Amino acid sequence: MRTISSFQSIVVALVLAGLIAGCSGDPNVRKQRYFDSGMRHFSEQRYREASIQFQNALQVDPRYAEAHLELARCYLKLEIYNGAYNSLLRATELQPDNLPAQIELGNLFVRAKEFKRAEERAQLVVSKDPRNVDAQILLASAHAGLEDYSNALREMQQAIDLDPQRAQSYLEYAKIQALAKQPQPAEESFKKAVELDPKSVEAYLAFGNFYAQEHRWQEAEAQIRRAIELDPRNPQSRAVLSRLFVVQGRMADAVQVLAEAKKAMPEISEAYRLLGDFYLASGDFDKGLTEYSSLLKEHPLDLKVKENYVQLLILHNQLDDATKLNDEILAGSPKDVEGLIHRGQILARRGRPNDAVQVLRSALSTEPDNPVAHFNLGEAFNLLGNLDQAEKEWREAIRLRPGMVSAHEALAAIAVRKGDLDLLRQSAEAMISAEPGYPTGYVLRAVLRTARKDWAGAESDAKRAIELAPNSAAPYAKMGNLRMAQNRLGEAERYYEQALGQDANFSEALRGLVGIYSRQRQPAKAQARVEAQIQKAPNNSSYYTLLGGMLLGAKKLDRAEAAFEKAVELNKNDPDAFLLLAEAQKQAGKQDEAIATYERAIQANPRNSQSYVSLAVMEEKRGNWQKAQELYTRVLRIAPDHPLAANNLAYLLLERGGNVDYALSLAQVARRKMPDSPFTAGTLAWAYYQKGNYGLAIPLLEEAAKRAPKNPIYQYHLGLSYWKAEKPELAKQHLERALRLEPQSPQAPEIRKVLAELGIG
Question: Distance (Å, rounded) from C-alpha 251 to C-alpha 287?
């Protein structure tokens, strides 16, 4: 036997190394290696890691259609729907005959409720492959989405005719029959589906959901338990059974099912996280924190456990612990998107929303279609007082993940603030549809129905929320609001007290009690109740603001000031507390202190426009018009169409020899935003006057004078306008009225001069 010499071994090694290096430099080899790695991650349900590998493959070859398709499937698993759409669109552009990609794209359109576009994709596939059952099912789903149930059922029958032994076709047929309000045929189709494929977990779960929608709880439970028997190691089936119990109000049974999943699948991350995630989703953060603390000890290397534990620490306001663990995650992976999102949340909670915006934008630079990052960016903008940008980000989050309850809830809060009942209805219905077993959607729909005086509907929703979350304060408070609206004050009081019994810091309930006592003309009782609640929740800044407001109304200015100071001390991010503190100081004659308070408010909340405006008004009154002009300008950088800032800055420019054209444009903005205000009418008229357009100025000044008949400036400007328009009698009438209203006004000498020129005065 011959042996290879040492020299020969080196030569062979070098040749092999060269071959390997040559292969690694081959783009086709590199992209295939990334692709294969992505497929392995996908098969192990590591979808984020898989998506990274498919993206790596696409960096090597952007025209790699198969990688686009698999990346889209990762995004679908991660619920990043816009990313899935972009990837599927690119895959179909590169390979129009890739029929599975066309069908996936059509199904995505169905999910997005773009049923016409889904129909187009289905027809395209059918034209290329008339016997494609998946395309036929997609076509039926599109028609069902358009509520064209007759055609949807016909298309499904054709799909069944193409392959009578395919269980999936009967399953989809059953779903459409249920939508078409045909429960008996739907039940028969479900039975046929499980008969053809008695091992289909999907079929049994869908059958169980059907029975649940029919409120046939025992039959629903039986079908879901059958799915669990078929695949005891499938976490999804346990989660579905838990949700069934939640809908029935069987919370203890729901928890037990998830605890059993943890024991049955101790090595499957999704399974042992179910219970902790349940607590997180239901808002029981104390139990969630305990559960995840235990999980982290048992599974210290599970990144998802770490990330979810960080989220719970943040929600529990344990920011130091959250920061430490999250920094460990980012140290190992600086671009970890979830880690960056958590860092943004921590910064926002620490009162650093500007820094939070930068971090969250960094997360979005890595994953532009991440709905959670968009949602939290909206939260940061909300803290900055930039509500338009916040709303934009929340809407983007919903576009990317239509069932995102937290984003719907945020939009609902904006709807309540704006009084936009249509937006509130959309948000509430979306939440109920996405999470029928959780209370928030019902709570918000109760608010809507109360506003519309649908007493029965509001009561039904509030009671449903109480059934689902008997330990939550919000449903009791909404019942209190409902009883207040019905003038059933005794019942309202009991519900508000129940809410505070569940959560001592639930400010809405305490405000409700104050409202009851105010309506009963018992201010002393209201004040005593607030002071008693402060003893139970001494760190609630809103309670001190509420107390300060009552003391301010009673002209107890020193005590009001002290209460507002405490509110500011506890929460520097509450601009209202600063504004009320300044108001108490102004009423007490402490003008310098009030100015200092406004300046503190601006420093603490630099994007809150009201602090700038209030300070600017004070500076104007002190004669410091340059400072006022600077402040109004800063407001308009934050909110370009702020009506009061635009109006006041325009007037300052007109009075102080500023740019008249710019002043006119500002006055027009203010007038559009406040069309019924005499102030905006008067300012816009004065701009027209200075432009020499007296015909436009006069009707605006007439309106202003009519709305504010005791304002001498409007009479003065109206007199001047009639004088320039060569209507001396009308000029005389209004100029003399201005003198009568304020004989010693700064304009009095000018008025007398004009009257003298008219030869009348």
Answer: 14
The 10 Å Cβ neighbour count of residue 748 is: 15
**What span, in angstroms and rounded, lies between the C-alpha atoms of 494 and 513?**
9
Length of the chain counted residue by residue: 761
Angle, helices 319-332 vs 303-315, to 10°: value is 150
R_g over Cα of the chain: 34
Burial 468-483 (b: 16+ CB within 10 A, else e): bbeebbbbbbbbbbbb
As a whole number of angstroms, the distance between CA 278 and CA 284 comes to 8
CA dihedral of 208, 214, 215, 219, whole degrees rounded to 10: -40
Q: How far apart are CA 112 and CA 334, in angstroms?
A: 33
642 vs 231: CA distance, rounded Å? 60
The predicted pLDDT at position 500 comes to 94
- The phi, psi pair for 360, rounded to 5°, reads -70, -35
**What would the pLDDT profile of 241-288 be if each residue is shown by its tens digit?**
999 998 887 889 999 999 999 999 998 888 899 998 888 877 777 888
For residue 1 the two structure tokens come to 């036997």
Q: Is 464 helix (H, G, I), strand (E, B) or coil?
A: helix
Asked if 125 and 156 touch (Cβ cutoff 8 Å), the reply is no
For residues 324 and 320, give the distance between their C-alpha atoms in angstroms, rounded to a whole number. Answer: 6
The encoded tokens of residue 47 equal: 């979808």
Enter the tokens of residue 710.
Answer: 């005791």
Give, rounded to a whole angstrom, the gap between the first and last alpha carbons of the chain.
133
pLDDT at 760: 57
CB atoms within 10 A of CB 736: 16
| Number of Cβ atoms within 10 Å of the Cβ of 234 | 19
CA-wise closest residue to 89 among 74, 76, 77, 106: 106
Q: Which two structure tokens, joined as six digits, stand for 238?
A: 């346990």
Concatenate the DSSP letters of all residues of 541-584 into one string. Answer: HHHHHHHHHHHHHTT-HHHHHHHHHHHHHH-TT-HHHHHHHHHH
Contact predicate 74/42, CB 8 Å: yes
Burial string for 631-643 (b: 16+ CB within 10 Å, else e) reads bbebbbebbeebb
Q: CA-CA distance, 86 to 72, in Å (whole number)?
A: 8
What's the confidence (pLDDT) of residue 15?
38
Q: How many CA atoms lie within 13 A of 247 on its CB side?
A: 21
What confidence score (pLDDT) does residue 373 get?
A: 95
Rounded Cα gap, residues 131 and 620, in angstroms: 78
Rounded Cα distance, 436 and 249, in Å: 11
pTM of the model: 0.61
Three-state SS at 369: coil
**Number of Cα atoms under 13 Å in the Cβ half of residue 624:** 12
State the Cα–Cα distance between residues 360 and 369, nearest whole angstrom: 12
- Whose tokens are 């009320």? That residue is 580
**Residue 257 CB neighbours (<10 A):** 24
Tell me, what's the pLDDT at 19?
A: 39
Residue from 759, 747, 670, 744 nearest 714 by CA: 747
Look up tokens 């890595």; give the residue. 366
Residue 193 has a pLDDT of 93
Q: Please answer whether residues 423 and 411 qualify as being in contact, where contact means their C-beta atoms are separated by less than 8 angstroms.
A: yes
Give me the residues of the chain with pLDDT under 70, please: 1-25, 760-761
The two three-digit tokens of residue 310, written as one number: 């960080």
Residue found by looking up tokens 């169905």 in the block: 110
pLDDT tens, 191-245? 999 999 999 999 999 999 999 888 899 999 999 999 999 999 899 999 999 999 9
Q: Which two structure tokens, joined as six digits, stand for 733?
A: 């009438």
Place of tokens 């198969």: 66
Triad 212, 215, 217: Cα angle to 5°: 65
All residues at 6 or more sequence positions from 13 whose CB lies less than 8 Å from its CB, including other chains: none
DSSP 651-672: HHHHHTT--HHHHHHHHHHHHH
